[in-house]
Write a structure and sequence with these properties.
This protein has about 80 residues and is mainly α. The protein is built from 4 helices and 2 strands; from the N terminus they run ββαααα. The protein has one domain (about 10-85).
């Protein structure tokens, strides 16, 4: 059984058998820097950004603020804010 890294902020699940990874995004755990890199790499792919937002969504309205930003704000602005944090 895989252990969840302490700094993990995102899990991209394994695709179904015989299916490629969704939007070419490598499955696995991502930390803060990995998430930023993932967003940078996909900043021109709206469907991939929405997929990442879906994977970040927790079901808890109070902790889903960043997810809402991904869905509504220009991605370049969010990437800059992630770099500065």
């Amino acid at each position: 059984m895989n252990k969840i890294p302490a700094d993990a902020v995102l899990l991209i699940p394994e695709p179904e058998a015989d299916q490629p990874p969704a939007y070419g995004i490598k499955p696995g755990y991502y930390n803060h820097d990995g998430l930023r890199e993932l967003l940078e790499a996909n900043q021109n792919n709206c469907e991939a950004i929405l997929y990442i937002a879906d994977m970040l969504e927790s079901g808890d309205k109070e902790s889903n603020g960043f997810v809402q930003l991904l869905r509504t704000q220009p991605i370049g602005h969010l990437i800059k804010s992630l770099k500065s944090s």
